[in-house]
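> example.struct
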């Protein structure tokens, strides 16, 4: 019963973060499994990535069905992210110590505050003013930056994508989240497969509970988000990110 409760709560936080804000489940599930169930860190990350795959794919489908998904530029950015994550990982191997500890958690909290204080109110009409060629070039450059940071730090991909899609590429929030979860479904699958191939299959019970809980709450959040007004979505996204950020900090440092 204790295992079920921890996995359910971890999936609840991860699913809401994924469906509302395109956040990676690894930021929530990994620290909870490590802290409360004593799951080895490498195995916990693999479980979190596996939970991300279905949750992100289902959320992307919901956003796409509501025309809040940029598949073309999402694929372009995804290719850059995957390629330069490998480069970032190689660079990280050359440097000793943790250079940017707490990066993902801090970004979660700060980005939550940002959405509450300065909501993203870009419209689809404003997005359409940017030429397709220019947006594609921006997608490649931003994908390179995200990939390098993810590979170097080992986390923060979902938050980095949301920040760059809204602040740099000028996406309205729903399209930014939809595109972010679309990309994450592929990057999470790549990460989960590599983790299981190297570390073996994790505890089936914990894996199944986390995957199902994350999928359930991601679908709930994605459906609510696509029906919400822009200002409500900004506030809800900011609130979810702030709660998750504070919660993860508490789990890690208290």
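> example.seq
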């Amino acid at each position: 019963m204790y295992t079920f409760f921890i996995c359910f709560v971890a999936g609840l936080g991860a699913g809401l973060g994924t469906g509302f804000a395109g956040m990676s489940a690894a930021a929530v599930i990994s620290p909870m499994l490590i802290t409360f169930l004593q799951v080895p860190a490498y195995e916990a990350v693999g479980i979190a990535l596996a939970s991300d795959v279905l949750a992100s794919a289902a959320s992307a489908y919901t956003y796409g069905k509501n025309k809040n998904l940029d598949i073309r530029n999402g694929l372009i950015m995804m290719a850059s992210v995957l390629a330069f994550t490998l480069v970032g990982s190689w660079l990280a191997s050359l440097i000793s110590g943790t250079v940017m500890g707490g990066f993902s958690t801090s970004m979660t909290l700060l980005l939550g505050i940002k959405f509450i204080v300065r909501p993203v109110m870009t419209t689809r009409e404003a997005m359409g003013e940017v030429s397709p060629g220019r947006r594609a070039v921006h997608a490649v450059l931003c994908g390179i930056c995200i990939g390098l940071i993810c590979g170097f730090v080992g986390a923060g991909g979902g938050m980095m994508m949301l920040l760059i899609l809204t602040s740099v590429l000028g996406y309205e929030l729903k399209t930014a989240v939809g595109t972010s979860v679309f990309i994450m479904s592929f990057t999470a699958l790549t990460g989960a497969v590599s983790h299981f191939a190297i570390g073996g299959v994790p505890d089936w019970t914990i894996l199944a509970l986390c995957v199902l809980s994350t999928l359930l709450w991601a679908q709930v959040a994605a459906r609510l988000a696509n029906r919400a007004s822009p200002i409500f979505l900004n506030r809800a996204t900011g609130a979810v990110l702030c709660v998750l950020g504070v919660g993860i900090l508490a789990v890690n440092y208290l």
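> remarks
The chain has a mean pLDDT of 82.
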